[in-house]
Amino acid sequence: MNEKHDYRIFSQLLIDLPAMNNANSSAPKVLVIFGTRPEAIKLFPVVRALSAQPALRTVTCVTAQHRQMLDQVLDIAEIRPDHDLDLMRADQSLDELTTRLLQGIGKTLDAVQPQRIIVQGDTATAMCGALAAYYRQIPVSHVEAGLRSYNIYHPWPEEVNRKIIGTIADQHFAPTETSAEALRSENIPENQISITGNTVIDALLVTAEKVGKDIALNPELTALLGRFADRKIIGVTSHRRENFGDGLNQISAALRNIAARDDVALIFPIHLNPNVRAVMNNALGGLDNVAMIEPLDYPNFVGLLGACHFMLTDSGGVQEEAPALGKPVLVMRNTTERPEGVEAGTAKLVGTDPDLIETEACRLLDEQDYYDSMARAHNPFGDGKSSERIADIVAASLTR
Ligand code: UD1
Ligand code: UDP
């Protein structure tokens, strides 16, 4: 892993978290359940906003579906979970993971007895959190509701996870009008839908403001940015389960072809999923201008987003963050549940066909007008105040 940083300095600068559980012991309890890196990034501002609500008690439960990648965010956000189920196993299958999650979260719900739970997004943790709460008739709030690709195998299993959560939840925090409209078309009552923006923009803005000023990038990333200063840097991430096998092989072939150019460098913080690592190490190991590094903590990843020429990714969160920083994104998927970036022209779907990925990457590298048309900072996903809106709605529903 990267050199351990002094996270106390980061967190003082970054988060300034109000005291947790800042209400009296008879106040209603809201349990925030999360387990992976993106959920933690998108929920730390929500936990912060909830903790500032005097009429609530905020309790946190991490499933640790991810371990190291979750802990990177917990450290920086200075969240010490009240419950840590420590569920991750190496190379876990979906059915094993789901079983452990359902049982572990169920026991936690029985112990905590919250008046409401909050889940985010579309992971196995979020789906099992909603289901375990439903089995106990505890109401569910869904952060980042209404994203739909309308293809249950892309992304897989996330499209079905979020539909299950959508069926159970009675508070749907839709990031955009498009996601709200998807919920309406599924007959979710209007009074259960709130367009709040996506909390990832809250996390991004508070972090980006500090990076490079109050927070220095880590020595490894700093050295790489120096070493590649005369090249165009392409930031890369890839981890989708539906791409395992042919898809990842094709992506790795495309990256190898792009790296054959002498004017580019690829910085690729590799997801800890062993299925991703094996393929990428085989295809890209030993190339001087491809830096495969350990997952970056959030401020350093935001630093990479700021420094790169563009991003090549299959990540959901990166599709939301890059446009906010004016970075073009080539999305290595056939569909997206986040059409806003594509519609605005800052993101483009390139699938996993190696020729198309390479062609589109070369257009961004070679055609300045084309690059400029995609490199416009805009924020279709939020204004940085989503978490406060969510906390206000949750508090109002529990205290009226
Ligand atoms: C999960 C989510 C996916 C989300 C992604 C974010 C599901 C089914 N998938 O996919 O929606 O986009 O997280 O990254 O919920 N591992 C580690 N350490 C870590 C994290 C992962 O070693 O900190 C390895 C383990 O071997 C683990 C494997 O990665 O078994 C897969 O983790 P898992 O959470 O099941 O799936 P992801 O592919 O990470
Ligand atoms: N991210 C990070 N370090 C990395 C790669 C990504 O902090 O090395 C952040 C990124 O900024 C985004 C989130 O992790 O907020 C995306 O997570 P991931 O791609 O694992 O999941 P997805 O968004 O696809 O569910």
TrEMBL record:
Catalytic activity: UDP-N-acetyl-alpha-D-glucosamine = UDP-N-acetyl-alpha-D-mannosamine
Entries under PANTHER family matching the protein: UDP-N-ACETYLGLUCOSAMINE 2-EPIMERASE (PTHR43174:SF2)
Domain of life: Bacteria
EC number: 5.1.3.14
Sequence similarity: Belongs to the UDP-N-acetylglucosamine 2-epimerase family.
Alphabetical UniProt keywords: Isomerase
Isomerase keyword on record: yes
Keyword Isomerase in annotation: yes
UniProt domain UDP-N-acetylglucosamine 2-epimerase: residue ranges: 49-394
One Gene Ontology MF term: UDP-N-acetylglucosamine 2-epimerase activity
Name of the top EC class for this enzyme: isomerase
Pfam families (alphabetical): Epimerase_2
Protein name: UDP-N-acetylglucosamine 2-epimerase (non-hydrolyzing)
